[in-house]
User: Fold this.
Amino acid sequence: MKIIAAVALVLALSLPGCTPSMLAQLVPILADVALAIAQAEPEVKLVEAEVATYFAAHPNPAAQQKAIEAIGKLRSSLVLAARSVHAAQSLTQADLDLAFADFKIAWIELQRILEEDGIVRDGRFAISPGGHSSPSLPEPIAFHLTVRR
Assistant:
């Protein structure tokens, strides 16, 4: 957590014209944003691994391409969210919601595709590597970020 706070501090200090009061406001939320992005990355990797496992057992190039494209949109939306928050000199809840709006839409779309193609059933992946119990499709903490005052 100290690393996340340090990254948030560096990001906040790099903002042009950032005053001490702005810094005080931004540091907590930037730490939350950094945590949300850091938490989303392994979840995206989990989805990629489960999708690859599923299509190895159930080949369907068209559905696989659709899932790969949805994962790509998800990754792009995380980069956009990070840039949007980094560019802010003050941050309202509306700014934060807007920064992660594309990510939320991309995650929901990916979830719909995975359910539609049978990769996820009842919130769990249909196949797991090595016959282990299938993990659940996680809900990113980015869905619940709030601006702390």
